[in-house]
Automatic annotation (TrEMBL):
Organism lineage: Eukaryota, Fungi, Dikarya, Basidiomycota, Agaricomycotina
Biological process according to GO: medium-chain fatty acid biosynthetic process; medium-chain fatty acid catabolic process
Name the record gives this protein: AB-hydrolase YheT
Membership in a protein family: Belongs to the AB hydrolase superfamily. AB hydrolase 4 family.
PANTHER family, per database record: ABHYDROLASE DOMAIN-CONTAINING PROTEIN, ALPHA_BETA HYDROLASE 1, ISOFORM A
Domain AB hydrolase-1 residues, every copy: 113-368
Residues at the active site: 199, 340, 366
A Pfam family: Abhydrolase_1
Spans traversing the lipid bilayer: none
Domain of life: Eukaryota
Length: 445
């Protein structure tokens, strides 16, 4: 394997890895006869990706960046409103698809590019890190935005989505996202789709893109703060006193509270492993992320045959996304920080895939990246993501893929060869104000 490793800034503050075998992609008009590589595209059209991240002076390490992301008040920052559609899956589950801008606010052409978003561990469309990118992404071009559409895929039970089956979500269950992309692609067949994932959602996005390979319906993807090697990172997260007591227990507490909101629904399935695990879950005074996953996720985090896993180690080993990067076949940008207290392993030198660019910033924490623009504290990650999406959808022609045919069978939207999967529109879920606060939940994780 070969890499072009760039240490950028003076002193060097970021590093990026590119393949030694750059893929050449045709540029759109007026230079349609010319080709470019992803590396050249990044340098020319995504300058902020390769510019150093400079943290605001009072958030000078990863813990401060991460805790500010979790505890700061962002209720009046980057307001985003959504129209919710409830999507039912064949196994009885429900997803909440939040579309922005709402139809009552602005009507967009059907061919408008769509950013399809996967949130973090127990989050949703309300999270400040989601709104930090979507607010300018859907803003009209005459106001300085991209003028795109966006859809946040809220996982089962998250962000006010009802839990209608005894199954939750996990780092490796990609079928829910697959059904959401299928629905969006069917509803807007002329719109290019762009994938955006945060933290756990970045892991799911990476695995989805890799599993789809040449048949991927997305034009490009951006993964932010992906946890990658879940075995290594879980050991670091749970093996250090500060990380275990603040982050691992904080995420475990979030997940237990999420489950507690759906107890009545879960008890409609008394024979399920999820229902049978509730007494032990609520008997514990506190539990870490790994303890929750070992008790709940390994059994209820997805469908058979993958689930159930023997234990949390087998689940983390399978779910790790760094091992599937070689199968990605669309432009794929991943950004991590080198002081993320939850992610200690980033696969910078472990793949030579010409479709993948990995960037590690000096500083930024987990889903933080708070810097200063003028006198305003803003997330640095916003501009790189927006530049990447605009470059990959407006500047180059990503090869058209031979994707699976979509059909309606007995009222279910299905793909050829995947008839065991399927989804259908279950109606409106109302207008969602993105600034809502999930009480009792530690945000930003």
């Amino acid at each position: 394997m070969g890499f072009a490793l760039g240490k950028l800034g003076n002193p060097p503050l970021s590093k990026a890895s590119f393949s030694s075998r750059p893929v050449n992609l045709p540029l759109k008009q007026p230079a349609a006869s010319e080709n470019t590589s992803l590396c050249a595209l990044l340098e020319l059209h995504c300058p902020s990706v390769l510019s150093p991240f400079r943290p605001v002076w009072w958030l000078f390490n990863g813990h401060l960046q991460t805790l500010y992301a979790a505890l700061g008040d962002f209720s009046v920052v980057d307001p985003v409103a959504y129209d919710r559609r409830l999507l039912q899956t064949k196994d009885g589950g429900t997803l909440g698809l939040d579309f922005t801008p709402p139809a009552s606010d602005r009507v967009l052409p059907d061919e408008t590019p769509i950013i399809v978003v996967l949130h973090g561990l127990s989050g949703g469309s309300h999270e400040s890190y989601v709104r930090a990118i979507l607010a300018p992404a859907v803003m009209p071009t005459h106001q300085g935005g991209l003028g795109y559409r966006a859809v946040v895929v809220n996982s089962r039970g998250c962000a006010g989505v009802p839990l209608t089956s005894p199954q939750l979500y996990s780092s490796c269950h990609t079928d829910d996202f697959r059904q959401a992309v299928l629905y969006i692609s069917h509803r807007y067949p002329r719109a290019p789709l762009l994938g955006l994932g945060f933290s756990l959602g970045a892991n799911v996005l990476t695995r989805y893109v890799a599993e789809e390979g040449e048949e991927c319906r997305l034009v490009s993807a951006c993964a932010l703060a992906c946890p990658w090697n879940l075995v290594t990172n879980s050991a670091a997260l749970h093996g250090r006193l500060l990380n275990r007591n603040i982050y691992a227990k904080g995420m475990g507490r979030n997940l237990r509270r999420l489950v507690s909101r759906h107890v009545d629904s879960i008890m409609k399935f008394p024979d399920s492993r999820l229902a049978q695990s509730l007494p032990e879950l609520f008997s514990r005074k506190s539990l870490t992320l790994a303890q929750f996953d070992n008790l709940i996720t390994v059994h209820a985090g997805g469908t058979s045959p993958l689930f159930p896993f023997k234990d949390v180690h087998h689940y983390y080993t399978y779910a790790a996304s760094h091992q599937v990067l070689g199968d990605v076949r669309i432009p794929f940008l991943a950004i991590n920080s080198d002081d993320d207290p939850m992610v200690k392993h980033v696969p910078m030198y472990e793949t030579d895939n010409e479709w993948v660019i990995l960037v590690v910033t000096r500083g930024g924490g987990h889903m933080g990246w708070f810097g200063t623009t003028g006198n305003v504290t803003r997330r640095w990650m916003t501009q790189p993501a927006l530049e990447w999406f605009r470059a990959t959808v407006e500047k180059i022609d990503v090869p058209r893929r031979a994707v699976r045919n979509i059909r309606v069978v007995d009222g279910w939207l299905v793909e050829s060869g995947r008839e065991h999967l399927g989804c259908r529109d279950n109606g409106e879920g109302g207008r969602i104000e993105g600034r809502m606060i999930q009480k009792g939940m530690l945000a930003g994780l």
